[in-house]
Each structure stands twice: as C-alpha cells, then as structure tokens.
Amino acid sequence: MAAKRKAKKPVDSRARRILRRALRWTAIAVAAFVVLSFLAVLPLRWIDPPTTSFMLRDKSGRDPLLHEWVDWDRLGSAMPLAVVASEDQRFADHFGFDVGQIRKSIDTAQRGGRLRGASTITQQLVKNLYLSSSRSMVRKGLEAWLTLVAELCLPKRRILELYVNVAELGPGIYGVGAAGRYYFGKTAAGLSDADAALLAATLPNPVRLRADSPTPYVRERQAWILGQMRRLRREDWLRRVDD
C-alpha cells in the first residue's frame, strides 16, 4: 500500500505543474488581451481613425468609398443631436449600456414580440470600428468588452464625434461629411435638422433604407426624430456631453 501511494506522488506533482503552467499562460493571455484592447482604443482619444472594420468589409462596390472626416467644431449641432435622438437618448447618462432599454427589449420578446436591438452609440461605434455585423456570441462578447474599454478611455463628446464620422449612411458612404455632400450638397455644419433627421432615420439599415429615395417608413422615422431633436435642443442636451 505504501509503495502504491509513493508511486502516485510523481504523477500528482506532474499534474499540478501542468495545471500551474496552464493557469500562468492563461493569465498572460488575458493580460495581453486587456492591454491590447486599451492600446487599440486609447489612441482614438487624440487620433482620427483612417478606416474601420466596416469600411474594410464594405461590399457596396463603390470605389473609392466616400468618407470625409469632420472635426467636432465643424460638425454643427444637427447630426450629433439627430443620432442621439434616434439611437440613444440616454447616451450622456449610461456607461455604454442602456439597461432600461435592454430590459424593455427582453420583456417585449418574452411577451411574444420581436427582440428589438438596444445597442447604444458606444456599442455601435466599437462594432463599426473593430468588429462585424454578425450576431455570434463571440462578437457580442467582444462588443461588450470593447464598449467598456471605450467608455473608460474616451470622453462622451469624442465617442459621439467618432460615431457620426464613421457610421455607414448609405452604400459605400461613411460619416456625415461624405453623406452631407452626397445627398444634399452641404457640409456637415450646413445640414438642417430635417436633413440630419433623414440621415439618422436610415441608420438601422443604411443600405436598404435610403436617404435619396426615402420610403414612408423612413419619412415617419424622420418626423419622429425631428420631434425628439426639438425636445433635446430645448433641454440644451449637447452641453451635457461637453461637461
């Protein structure tokens, strides 16, 4: 019996060494992933991204893609306000996730309705910059993590500036600078509230929902967004992202 117990010790010791080595490499991999995530996002606090994952994956056939960067002080107020009114009215208050909207979406699905998206502007930004439009759990997990990183690294105003500059607003058309010139012959600052609301109305699917040939559904969304923009402007909402 004693001989048998002694024979097991080297095996047990070897197993513990393998386990410790596996845990050590797992910890190194996790730490490297965290560091790389912050290195990918933090520079965007000062550097404008030259391209995005969505641009690199673009299948519109437009060559070259239309994209024109517009700094915050040349954006005007219409488009930033329109995307907030349309996509994420609690943008200034949450930390990347609108828990209230997520709960509403789940409740609707549980009552037999369609599961609605509850993505915030920050979530949509990181998806556009780094990920794809797939619905896999891996992609959603990466999106959630990068959303937290973005909220830690970037001021709210910068997140909004990045989003309106990289969002797809038509086939092969990215950002309000290019979209304003293509659809209206205007700069971003020259867009009216109605122009910006029309662009924002296409954001759920800017390939199918077109600003240059708006369907009744797009016009209905545009009218609703305009109403929300008037309310947010009365509340001086944009000042909150500068605080």
- Compute the average pLDDT: 89
Question: Which spans have pLDDT < 50 for at least 5 consecutive residues?
Answer: none
General form: elongated
Q: What share of the residues lie within helices?
A: 55-70%
Sheet of most strands: 3 strands, mixed
Radius of gyration: 23 Å
Span between N and C termini? Answer: 74 Å
Task: Write down the secondary-structure element order.
Answer: HHEHHHHHEEHHHH
- Helical segment tally? 11
The strand line-up of the biggest sheet is 1-3-2
The secondary structure category is mainly alpha
- Tell me the fraction of residues in β-strands, as a range: under 5%
- Care to count the β-strands? 3
Write the layout of secondary structure elements.
Elements: H1 2-41, H2 53-56, E1 66-67, H3 78-87, H4 99-110, H5 121-130, H6 137-153, H7 156-166, E2 168-170, E3 173-174, H8 175-184, H9 193-201, H10 216-234, H11 239-242
Parallel strand pairs: 1-3
Antiparallel strand pairs: 2-3
Helix pairs in contact: 3-9, 3-10, 5-6, 5-7, 9-10
Task: Describe the model.
It is built from eleven helices and three strands. The protein starts with a helix and ends with a helix. It has helices spanning 2-41, 53-56, 78-87, 99-110, 121-130, 137-153, 156-166, 175-184, 193-201, 216-234, 239-242, and strands spanning 66-67, 168-170, 173-174. It has a three-stranded mixed β-sheet, with helices on one face. Helix content is 60%, strand content 3%. Strand 2 (168-170) and strand 3 (173-174) form a beta hairpin. The radius of gyration is 23 Å and the shape is elongated. The model has no long low-confidence stretch (mean pLDDT 89).
